[in-house]
Amino acid sequence: MRKGYIQVYTGNGKGKTTASLGLALRAAGAGLKVFIVQFIKKRRCSEHKALERFGDLITVRQYGTGFIKGKKPASSAIASAKKGIKDVKKALLSGHYDMVILDEVNIAVHYGLISADDVLELLDEKPPETEVIITGRYADEKLIKKADLVTEMREIKHYFKEGVKAREGIEY
Questions:
Q1: For the chain, which domains are there?
Q2: pTM of the predicted structure, to 2 decimals
Q3: Which of 28, 102, 139, 148 has the most Cβ atoms closer than 10 angstroms to its Cβ?
């Protein structure tokens, strides 16, 4: 039996979601089934178009109402995140998926849409062979402690600060 680990990608640098999508692509290449849940995000981006080509192996669901950026979250954002957690639990317990990605769940926890304990409960219930990937800035210390692998992306330099807007196919 294959052991599934818990991976966390956090920090203020670019590349957390990209890392998780790379893992999804690698898993699909090996014939593994992947469930990707995107918290916060609601925009359809280029990666969604690409992932549709792997529809038999990769499922993507969004449970977001858009970026929060310091605002008090709307009740609709909280309800959407809670539905996302519920659907992740179903997917984990179904035994259908080899990898489950909780994209931007750290942000959802940071802004109080869901609790770190909600995520920890999922991790405690995950089948031993299922790989779980957690992304987003501000990873909660409890999630970091629970994880088997933690990578912090650190921004050193970013062209956004020079006025470069997000570009299709690169940032979205």
A1: 6-157 (3.40.50.300)
A2: 0.91
A3: 102
